[in-house]
Design brief:
single chain, 19 helices, binds phenylalanine
Length: 486
């Protein structure tokens, strides 16, 4: 069976940026920025994206392109003897689980979009918005229906293949997203009192930064760039050898980061202009923003546009989550794309139901110390599987396949220049694995058990410095020894 591939450079960019740009940028990035005090957190985030996110993205792209295979097949193609393909299974499993509840949250967005279009949302009094949100997501049938819509629509776009489905729809949806975002941004920054919001976003106050914030920034950098789940790897396998991967990864990273910052610029100036608090957490766009739109002239129109924007961003991400699993199932079990997509859509919908009901009928069913089904899925995927997936990619590319081979693929065998080979080597072999290990320990609460209270910042800073330093020495020696072999 001939493998499908992307048709144009712009198409690749739209699809990969579409995957990266999602709820993570427009929902999560603003609310964690709000909770972590604003600009200082953003600076750390930018640093994590540039130093760790970008090199890991490049690695995933080349691993896919080199092997022209799905997330599990890629590992097998390079190391057929050892069970490295299991890390591909982890990645695919993570995408599967995340899709089940990502589609639910996207479903909430579509509920809100519907309620904006009918004009109901704008009539809700600010003090009732919290209960209103709880009512919508806890109403069982409506969220189940909206999750179904999201999965059905995603399956429809994936069904037609990489070029005629994913690429085609991404090329339509991404420009629409950009236009709406720019429009909303202009509205927000021209409100009276918007400057306080801009200050919150762009004027760093480092006293507000915590160790927890730093780790959250790093974790979010991975999530936002869609790393550690075999997505970028799978998309890489649809790219031809003459494409400049470095440039592509750079463009996707810049687009993802700009959109997150733009989303912040839509939300915070408006929140501050109407005297609301920026630290509402996950309810920021569902509870705080509707209160903002209520006060704004033509608020109902902007509200509808806003939820449409978030809905589009979510859909281009669900496409990529489904594609990872579809690519694997079609190739592994020799199914047609159509059969695989329909089958998986049904299974994913069934798996999403316990998460949906966790906010309604099944909210009383808890396990592992009070976790609902949704909490368990989210915890397992975000805190355990996602970091593991990222860690395995780095170790595999850095130590098993070898950065020298990766660099050959990055440069398309010398066709393109790559100046920062040494830095890339250091990051993929040492810095990124160390950083991911720390996120992993922290996310599971183990770090605070290992390090005495109040010492976390110092321990992390010195520990990290030491790892980088020792890493540099070790890699330098290895390289010198290798050169001496010739
Ligand atoms: N990167 C997406 C976002 O920012 C989320 C996502 C993660 C999508 C992993 C696909 C895979 O929302």
């Amino acid at each position: 069976m001939k493998r499908d591939s992307f048709g144009s450079r712009l198409g690749i960019l739209a699809a990969a940026a579409g995957s990266a740009i999602g709820l993570g940028n427009i929902w999560k990035f603003p609310f964690i920025t709000g909770q972590n005090g604003g600009a200082a957190f953003i600076l750390v985030y930018l640093f994590c994206i540039a130093l760790i996110g970008l090199p890991v993205m490049v690695s995933e792209f080349v691993l896919g392109r080199k092997t022209q295979s799905n997330a599990a097949g890629a590992f097998k193609a390079i190391e057929p003897e050892k069970p490295w393909y299991l890390s591909g299974y982890i990645a695919i499993g993570t995408a599967f689980i995340i899709l089940s509840y990502y589609a639910m949250i996207a479903g909430w967005i579509f509920s809100y979009l519907g309620r904006s279009i009918t004009g109901e949302l704008i009539t809700i009094a600010p003090e009732q918005l919290g209960d209103y949100f709880g009512g919508v997501i806890g109403s069982n049938i409506e969220p189940m229906f909206c999750t179904f819509l999201v999965i059905a629509f995603t399956a429809f776009m994936v069904l037609s293949g990489v070029k005629d489905g994913i690429e085609k729809y991404s090329k339509i949806l991404m420009p629409v997203l950009l236009v709406i975002l720019v429009g909303l941004m202009i509205r927000s920054v021209t409100l009276d009192g918007a400057s306080k919001g801009l200050e919150f976003l762009f004027k760093p106050d480092f006293s507000k930064l915590t160790t927890k914030g730093v780790l959250e920034a790093l974790g979010h950098a991975f999530y936002s760039l869609s790393l550690g789940m075999g997505i970028i790897l799978t998309y890489g396998s649809y790219i031809n050898k003459k494409e400049n991967i470095l440039k592509l990864a750079f463009q996707v990273t810049i687009a993802d980061t700009c959109i997150a910052l733009m989303a912040g610029t839509v939300i915070f100036p408006a929140v501050f202009a109407y005297g609301l608090e920026p630290n509402a957490g996950p309810g920021l766009i569902f509870i705080t923003l509707p209160a903002v739109f209520r006060e704004m002239p033509f608020g109902a129109v902007f509200e509808t546009l806003f939820f449409l924007l978030v809905g589009i961003a979510a859909l281009t991400s669900t496409i990529s989550l489904l594609e990872v699993v579809v690519a694997f199932v079609t190739e592994q079990f020799n199914l047609t794309r159509k059969k695989a997509t329909l089958l998986l859509a049904v299974v994913i919908y069934l798996v999403s139901i316990p998460s949906v009901l966790s906010f309604g009928a099944w909210s009383g069913i808890t396990m592992f110390g009070g976790k609902t089904f949704f909490d368990v899925f989210d915890y397992t995927a975000s805190n355990i599987l996602l970091p593991l997936g990222g860690l395995f990619v780095c170790i595999f590319v850095g130590w098993v396949w070898g950065t020298e081979n990766a660099v050959k693929e990055i440069t398309s065998n010398g066709l393109f220049a790559f100046k920062y080979k040494g830095l890339y080597d250091l990051i993929i072999k040492i810095v990124a694995p160390a950083a991911i290990t720390v996120i992993f320990l922290n996310a599971n609460g183990w770090l605070s058990k290992l390090v005495p209270e109040g010492q976390m910042g110092t321990v992390m800073f010195t520990g990290f410095g030491a790892i980088v330093f020792i890493g540099m020495i070790v890699l330098n020696r290895r390289n010198r020894m290798k050169k001496a072999d010739f």
